[in-house]
Design a protein that fits this description.
Helices cover about 50% and strands about 5% of the residues. It has 7 helices and 2 strands, in the order αβααβαααα. Strands 1-2 form a two-stranded antiparallel ribbon. The protein is extended, with a radius of gyration of 18 Å. Bound molecules: flavin mononucleotide.
Length: about 110
Amino acid sequence: MLAVTDAVIAAQNAVVAAESLGIGSCYIGDIMEQYEEHREILQLPEYVFPSCMLVFGYPTPQQSMRPKPERCRLEDIVQENTYYRRNFKRDEQISTTLSGSICCWREKGIGMK
Ligand SMILES: Cc1cc2nc3c(=O)[nH]c(=O)nc-3n(C[C@H](O)[C@H](O)[C@H](O)COP(=O)(O)O)c2cc1C
């Protein structure tokens, strides 16, 4: 499974290199979600599976100018030394944009006390 990490590291380097040339990119999660189909399309041999897919292209001016979505605060997504449970009382105070994600995590039972 280390190879998966290697592939994603290589992909992220490609993202950064492309960005420096004005080329945008987008990860495609479908590669793992529908991996059986992609294995066939790519004619992968036995025991080989795709772990990462990237598409590249020149962004339209509209895409380049779009406001960046609000990001999670680092303290909400970075764990240091040990895992800690999320504090949903505190999370209630964060913006409505992010509260959608928290509802989603709640539905899936992720991070519940
Ligand atoms: C692992 C991973 C898989 C993703 N899969 C898809 C995908 O299948 N289709 C898609 O349109 N975007 C996909 N994205 C891109 C996200 O939807 C999002 O546009 C991207 O992470 C940039 O985030 P931002 O809009 O907050 O800047 C994926 C991103 C990641 C990190």
